[in-house]
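Closing statement on the protoporphyrin IX containing FE sub-project.
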Amino acid sequence: MEHIIGYDLARGLHIIAVIAWISGLLMLPRFYAYVTASQPGGELEAAMLKAARNLRMIILTPSFILAWAFGLFLFATYVSGDWSRPIGEVLAAVPHWFWGKLVLVLGLSGYQGFLSSEGRRLAKGERRHTERYWRLMSEVPFLVAIAAVLLATLEP
Ligand code: HEM
């Protein structure tokens, strides 16, 4: 059945959106580390808070939406197949790797929500975590991305 965009184009656009999303999730905690290490009210703090806000608005939010949109499009059109069957049958036929990947990407989405709320707190001068904490946190998305990519490509 013909879909609005072909499978390979949708997969390509999905991967491009995912690269931007993960890059943003890797960079943002590092900006928070600089904010945390900076003089409260100083020039560096203002510059890093502005950079963090721009990163959230220009990269993270659009790529998050596009990664989900193309991912769900791929799921609804090519992975889950014929929706005229009973929903139980459709869901039972979904490969296990996809449920594992969905848990990981829901985790990444929750992590993005946490980063957004911490960004608003830092802008109000609330520094709840250390510089070291943010440097460590910036590694987390990469570890999750490794697992998500292997699930999506190996389809175990
Ligand atoms: C945001 C929610 C996401 C959804 C709903 C989703 C869903 C999907 C679906 C349905 C496919 C097609 C699989 C197939 O053709 O058999 C796919 C492909 C892929 N996804 Fe995602 N995905 C999401 C996020 C991610 C993330 C965060 C990563 C990596 C960090 C990722 C990496 C990939 C890769 C590399 C492929 C291509 C696999 C291949 O063609 O071999 N996806 N995704």
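The pocket of protoporphyrin IX containing FE is lined by residues 11, 14-15, 18, 22, 67-68, 71-72, 74-75, 78-79, 105, 108, 145, 148-149, 152-153 (CB under 6 Å). With this model delivered, the sub-project is considered complete and its resources will be redirected to Aim 3.
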